[in-house]
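Researcher: Good morning. I'm working through a list of sequences from a screen, and I'd like to move beyond sequence-only analysis. For each chain I'm collecting a predicted structure so we can compare shapes side by side. This is the next one on the list. No need for commentary yet; just the structure.
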Amino acid sequence: MKIRHGSTRSVFIIRGLAIKMPRLYIKRVFRAIINREHVKYALPRLYLGRASNRLEWTTWREHRSKHLCPVLWCDPWGWLLVAKRADTCDDKGCNHVYAIYSIFEKNNIKVGDNEENDIHTGNIGHIGKNVVIVDYGN
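Model: Good morning. Structure tokens for this chain:
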């Protein structure tokens, strides 16, 4: 089992599955309790992680594109999302990154750090020969 952490979610990679959960920042919770602050303000990323799971689930249900990593299940509140595991460009060196970028550019999808999406080499992978976007919940 591998564990990866993004800014809003943690991903547990188990065999052929990627299980995504909102990232918990335990130190922030304890600090909020000790300082008598409202815990809601200590956990903004928790809410963003749940929203990302729900967005990824609804995007998959609506589009089911071959360029999106398949989502198998998500609970209604966004606490848990189960998707197929894809080998990302971070896992194995991707020789085809520039080819992938050209596919997105032909379809008028902006690639890189921008306000519209979060597509970069770490979020692009493949399942077999099919190139997919791994994290499209942002």
